[in-house]
């Protein structure tokens, strides 16, 4: 379809046609996966992206993490201005404050955890109709343990050339957890938010190593029922200080806060998230659905600017990454030391001082179709919410499909991306030919393949996690 579209006349009418067909294509391709007439009608906003920008002045929120880079770059390199936007970037204290700011209208959109708009749409924690029209990056997180824990597991790790072999399995933590339990102490680890990728990655890693990270009862946000390892929430920039204080024995967080622990000499990263799930989606641009409907040309301009920034970040094998590091190190963005940010963002990752390894794809912003908001990505988050009890009861495959369609909006992404293709800014091959689903993915640490078209079958494959017909109560797991 895209090749046929690009043979038409150039100019305003052609762009409108691109938007119309992108919206129609999004509805048509999912007809066999639970799409509905109401859903197709809701996506008509993608057809109205031409004309003057309705709201040129925008305020976007972010958390001080390396993966907010597309927003900082879009501002500093003038991509927002090129698209007729005057954007203000405002750091937020934590993910809850950021979410409330978007829902309440103080923020027009935000650098958001991929799970946040999904959770809000299904009413977990907060109920609001949010959408994600673009994914901001792939990978970018790691799990770090305290020096004390590292010293307890280090001698048992397999080695190659005197260095630990990665990825490191959570099974090496089992004797440590048992020792803590024998001493009457909980083994505590931190993550950034109950519906964060970090929470699900940490849980995935622990469960793959035979440790239960606990389950959520209906309406509960602690998730500690039947837990071998207790997980708690800490804002990303506070992770190193919380680890140093001994409140937690490890954490899962985005950069540069794993590298900060290495720099401070207080902890050791044991695994990066691409080793848990290779090329996993991380952050999204989250905003209210009614905002996108009210300001379609504004959203298209916003997405075009971000796509340009993503392209700049991955251009020519990372030639611009050093400049990106300097931008991010400024106090109004991430505010960490440039050397700490560079330790994971310039094609390498430092596990310990003296143990820096190539990691070309640790941060991916544009390559591998990183910006495309796949329905299957949203479905993966929903499966993990069900696996750990945040979705309290069984759901049909169709529920997973329709929920993903309500939140992830590839129609909006493609409408903006097609304009950039027509202008020669990006190439036709820079966007996927897809029905919104990735092919089955096998790059998980436990060897289980994820197929977004079969979410309930996927859930049945885990040895630790809720099974069909199970619910979580304060007393433990019960059958319906």
Automatic annotation (TrEMBL):
**What's the domain of life for this entry?**
Bacteria
Chain coiled-coil ranges: none
Signal: is it a keyword of this entry? yes
Gene3D superfamilies listed in its UniProt record:
Periplasmic binding protein-like II
The UniProt keyword set, sorted, is: Cell inner membrane, Cell membrane, Membrane, Signal, Transport
UniProt-recorded name of the protein: Nitrate ABC transporter, nitrate-binding protein
The places in or outside the cell where this protein is found are:
Endomembrane system
The entry sums up its family as follows:
Belongs to the CmpA/NrtA family.
What is the residue range of the signal peptide feature? 1-31
Kindly give the Pfam families that the UniProt entry links to this protein.
NMT1_2
Q: What InterPro entries does its record include?
A: NrtA/CpmA_ABC-bd_dom (IPR044527), TAT_signal (IPR006311)
């Amino acid at each position: 379809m895209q090749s046929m579209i690009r043979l038409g006349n150039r100019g305003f009418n052609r762009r409108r046609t691109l938007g119309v067909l992108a919206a129609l294509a999004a509805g048509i391709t999912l007809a066999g996966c639970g799409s509905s007439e109401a859903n197709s009608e809701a996506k008509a906003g993608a057809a109205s992206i031409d004309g003057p920008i309705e709201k040129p002045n925008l305020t976007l929120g972010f958390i001080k993490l390396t993966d907010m880079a597309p927003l900082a770059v879009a501002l500093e390199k003038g991509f927002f201005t090129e698209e007729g936007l005057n954007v203000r970037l405002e750091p937020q204290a934590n993910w809850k404050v950021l979410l409330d700011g978007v829902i309440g209208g103080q923020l027009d959109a935000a650098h958001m955890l991929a799970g946040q708009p999904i959770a809000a749409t299904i009413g977990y924690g907060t109920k609001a109709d949010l959408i994600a029209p673009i994914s901001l990056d792939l990978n970018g997180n790691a799990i770090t343990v305290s020096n004390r824990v590292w010293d307890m597991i280090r001698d048992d790790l397999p080695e190659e050339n005197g260095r630990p072999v990665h990825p490191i399995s959570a099974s090496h933590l089992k004797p440590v957890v048992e020792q803590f339990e024998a001493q009457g102490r909980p083994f505590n680890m931190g993550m950034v938010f109950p519906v964060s990728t970090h929470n699900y990655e940490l849980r995935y890693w622990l469960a793959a190593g035979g440790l239960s990270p606990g389950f959520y009862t209906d309406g509960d946000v602690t998730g500690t029922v039947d837990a071998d390892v207790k997980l708690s929430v800490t804002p990303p920039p506070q992770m190193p200080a919380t680890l140093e204080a001994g409140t937690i024995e490890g954490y899962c967080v985005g950069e540069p806060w794993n590298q900060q622990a290495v720099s401070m000499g207080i902890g050791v990263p044991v695994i990066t998230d691409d080793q848990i799930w290779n090329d996993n989606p991380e952050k999204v641009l989250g905003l209210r659905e009614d905002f996108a409907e009210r300001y379609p040309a504004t959203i298209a301009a916003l997405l075009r600017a971000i796509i340009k920034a993503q392209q700049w970040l991955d251009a020519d094998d990372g030639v611009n990454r050093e400049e990106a590091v300097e931008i991010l190190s400024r106090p109004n963005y991430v505010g960490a030391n440039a050397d700490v940010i560079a330790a994971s963002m310039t094609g390498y990752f430092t596990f310990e001082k003296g143990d820096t390894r190539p990691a070309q794809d640790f941060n991916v912003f544009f390559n591998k179709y990183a910006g495309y908001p796949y329905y299957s990505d949203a479905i993966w988050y929903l499966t993990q919410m069900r696996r750990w009890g945040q979705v309290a009861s069984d759901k049909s495959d169709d529920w997973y499909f329709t929920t993903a369609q309500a939140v992830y909006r590839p129609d909006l992404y493609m409408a903006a991306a097609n304009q950039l293709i027509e202008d020669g800014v990006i190439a036709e091959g820079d966007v996927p030919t897809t029905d919104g689903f990735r092919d089955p993915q096998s790059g998980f640490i436990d060897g289980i393949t994820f197929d977004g078209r079969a979410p309930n079958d996927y859930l049945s494959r885990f040895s630790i996690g809720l099974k069909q017909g199970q619910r979580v109560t304060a007393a433990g797991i019960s059958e319906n």
